Amino acid sequence: MDKVKISIVVPVYNAEAYLDRCLHSILDQEFSSYEVILVDDGSTDASWLICDRYSSTDPRFITLHQPNKGVSAARNAGINMAQGEYVMFLDADDALLPDALDAMVESLNGEDVVVGGYGIFIGGVPSKEVKPYATVSYKGNDYPRFFEDNLLPNCELLDAPWAKLFRTKAIRSIRFNEDMNYAEDKLFVFEVLSKCSSILAVSRAVYGYYRRPGSLGSDISSDSHIQ
Q1: 192, 113 Cβ separation under 8 angstroms
Q2: Which of 103-112, 149-158, 200-209 has the lowest mean pLDDT?
Q3: Which phi-psi region, left, alpha or beta, contains residue 84 (left: φ > 0; alpha: ψ -120 to 50)?
Q4: 11-15, 144-148, 155-159 — which is least confidently predicted?
């Protein structure tokens, strides 16, 4: 199981209040064949110090400091550095759920994308789970059935790049659009899926999405959302 190496890309910007929770959720995983690429996107709080602390004490953690360019540029920088067979994205204010990595690789058989579920936490309290209806591998002619089985009843599964594994060679020419401020992550997911031919759905919540009042994703009346 540990022969599959995962590159976990964590874009970090002024996340000192949440970053330890995020990174400890990785360290708490039973699965250990990973590297963590921390991209400090010009933080002005203590986030950069926290990143350096983890990368100085655990060789699996790598820190890249760059001027503030936005989350898409940070994720792209992480992709460019990734050495793993698969790439995973984890936001600095979110967390992996227990045994998440084991759950995502347990049934893996070379698929281009793994789509897991996620739990929504509001104010730290579990609110809702979004996950595929069953653990199924869709390949070749069966690939379109993933969308019929999962997206028609629940289109939220593709709202973000997290709770997923992307095979590194499948996204080698795909990057996040750095000129967009909203839904650039969904666009990335759609572009990857349009160019892939296999997907593994994992019917389990593997990711904790901590929704905070006032965040861009929760403000459906903002100019960015409307655009």
Answers
A1: yes
A2: 149-158
A3: beta
A4: 155-159
Mean of pLDDT over the chain:
91
Count how many Cα atoms sit within 13 Å of the Cα of residue 67 in the half-sphere of its side chain: 0
Phi, psi angles (nearest 5°) of residue 27: -60, -30
Give the model's pLDDT for residue 108. 95
Place of tokens 């390949």: 139
pLDDT digits (tens, 9 = 90+) for 32-62: 999 999 999 999 999 999 999 999 999 999 9
Asked if residues 7 and 35 have their Cβ atoms less than 8 Å apart, the reply is yes
Query: Which of 152, 149, 155, 151 minimizes the C-alpha distance to 136?
Result: 149
Contact (CB, 8 A) for 146 and 174: no
Q: What is the distance between the alpha carbons of residues 85 and 12, in angstroms, rounded to a whole number?
A: 23
Given a contact cutoff of 8 angstroms between Cβ atoms, the answer to whether 208 and 119 are in contact is: yes
The whole-model pTM stands at: 0.92
For 91-131, list the strands marked E by DSSP.
95-96, 113-122, 125-130
Q: Do 108 and 200 meet the contact criterion of CB atoms below 8 Å apart?
A: yes
Distance CA 154, CA 130 (A): 8
DSSP per position, 167-214: EGGGSTT----TT-SSSHHHHHHHHHHHH-SEEEEEEEEEEEEEE-TT
Whole-number Å distance between alpha carbons of 23 and 127: 22
Query: How far is Cα 177 from Cα 188, in angstroms, rounded to an integer?
Result: 8
pLDDT confidence band for 123 (50 / 70 / 90):
confident
